[in-house]
Amino acid sequence: MNFTRIEPxxxxxxxxxxxxxxxxxxxxxxxxxxxLLEIGIVRYYCGFAPVNESSAIIIPAEGEVTVCSGQAxxxxxxxxxxxEKSNIAILPEIGEVSGFEYNTEGQLDFEExxxxxxxxxxxxxxxxxxxxxxxxxxxxxxxxxxxDGAELVDFDDEHYDQRIIKxxxxxxxxKTNWDITTQMFETVVPQIEVGxxxxxxxxxxxxxxxxxxxESYVQSFAPMVATGPVNSHISMCRxxxxxxxxxxxxxxxxxxxxxxxxxxxxxxxxxxxxxxxxKDAVMCAYDALNYASDKMKPGVSCDVVLNAYTDYxxxxxxxxYCPYGSLHSTGMLECEAPTFTVENKRVIEENMxxxxxxxxxxxxxxxxxxxxxxxITDKGAERMTKYNDRAIPKIFK
Length: 397
Known about the structure:
Blueprint: H1 8-24, E1 29-34, H2 40-46, E2 55-60, E3 65-69, H3 74-80, E4 86-90, H4 110-120, E5 126-130, H5 137-146, E6 151-154, H6 156-164, H7 168-188, H8 198-211, E7 216-217, E8 224-227, H9 228-231, E9 250-258, E10 261-269, H10 276-293, H11 302-315, E11 325-329, E12 336-339, E13 353-363, E14 366-376, E15 381-383, H12 387-396
Parallel strand pairs: 1-5, 3-4, 5-6
Antiparallel strand pairs: 1-2, 2-3, 7-9, 8-9, 9-10, 11-12, 11-13, 13-14, 14-15
């Protein structure tokens, strides 16, 4: 296993690249906010992601960057922040418990922090903010109060566009992630037995990923093991104490986070004798996934890929069980913006990392998903999570 990391200089390069975008759009300052749902915004620019708190980063057009931590994660921030030209502020608004009061030397609130920044940068007129779905009202109100009259600009699209093309270092880190994810499935699946609970199997996945060197499970959900004709219909779930039975569908979704980057595999399984109707559906989904992914090449519009997938399912009679054909970016989140849709016709480019999945939902015996991670090379899409390609034909054909 090649345990690579992102070097500190790359984080400064990302800040410099953002500042070029800011200059082109007349933005004087950007503030990004992260919580445990979207932990990657702040981490992308400085390497710091708190354990049990939120975080923020303030990037002026020039001068020092401010990395914002709660009290509990401050020492970790000192260790993980990779930006040399930055300072760290402790702020109660992003602490581990809402409304909790700390008596910490050096602590200030966001209003005071913004006043200090304004004193150093009195001509801030346009402020970009990142995290439109999660940005706290309390911080935004203090931002408006201090920078009275400044225009607030949604900067999410610019941020996620910056993340979509992966650097050589990011690709190496993601390859480690994909290798861990693949080995995890290859080790855990043969251990699954009739009578195990969903939670027990989920624990097997979590234990194995840590043995292999993962930082955590994929952002931001634990391994999901949904079994049988009822539970398997649930797309996102918490595992239950239901026991696995023979000849029923097991819908597994598990991934890992390594150095802040994420990968996932979704895969079906049946223990014991496999009913022919399950075999037929799984092999159709697998073949449709391969048919569509073969069309993922640089310069190809994503609607070509998505329409190929749905056309394949229509041809073989499974289109009514297809709630969607999913094609999305992956990186610091397992599923991150921007997404690819028939409507937006986003063009696939080299060095994108993309997940594609075949989701069959609503059959009388259950539902399942096949999902893998792909790297877009100059020749096309390379499947980077290898388990499904090795296991599904062997199990279901």
